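User: C-alpha cells in, sequence out, please.
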C-alpha cells in the first residue's frame, strides 16, 4: 500500500463509511466474509402511520448489512461494490424492539456477488428476507 492509497477499512468500520446507514442508527455487530450481522432499533420516526417500522428502513438495513458482506467477498483488484438489484419479501410487521439482519453470500464471482439477508425480530421471527445483487467495481469505475 502506498501513502496515496487509503488504508482498507476494518470490517467493523464499514458501516461508519456509509453515512445514510449511520444516520438511520444501523449498528454492525459482526462482519466476516461468511456472515455480516447488524441491527436497527424500532423508532417512531422510522414508522408508517400504523406504528410499524417502514419497509424502506428494513430495506436500508438489509442493503447496508448485505453490502458489508459483499465488500468482504470482493475479488483481488476490486475497489468496491454497488447494488444493482434488490428484492425484499416482508413477512410481518415490526412494532417494537430491534430488527436483526444476517447477511450471507449466495454467489461470489468476479463480476457479481449475490447476498441473502434475513431480517428477524427480537423473538427470532423472520420478518423479511432480501436477496441483492452487487456488481464488483474496479479502479476507474464509479
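Assistant: Sequence out:
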Amino acid at each position: 500500500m502506498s501513502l496515496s492509497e487509503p488504508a482498507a477499512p476494518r470490517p467493523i468500520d464499514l458501516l461508519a463509511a456509509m453515512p445514510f446507514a449511520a444516520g438511520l442508527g444501523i449498528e454492525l455487530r459482526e462482519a466476516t466474509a461468511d456472515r455480516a450481522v447488524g441491527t436497527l432499533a424500532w423508532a417512531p420516526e422510522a414508522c408508517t402511520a400504523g406504528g410499524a417500522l417502514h419497509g424502506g428502513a428494513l430495506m436500508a438495513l438489509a442493503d447496508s448489512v448485505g453490502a458489508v458482506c459483499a465488500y468482504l467477498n470482493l475479488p483481488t483488484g476490486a475497489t468496491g461494490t454497488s447494488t444493482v438489484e434488490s428484492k425484499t419479501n416482508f413477512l410481518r410487521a415490526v412494532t417494537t424492539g430491534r430488527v436483526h439482519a444476517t447477511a450471507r453470500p449466495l454467489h461470489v464471482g468476479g463480476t457479481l456477488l449475490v447476498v441473502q439477508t434475513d431480517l428477524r425480530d427480537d423473538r427470532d421471527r423472520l420478518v423479511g428476507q432480501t436477496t441483492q445483487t452487487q456488481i464488483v467495481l474496479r479502479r476507474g469505475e464509479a
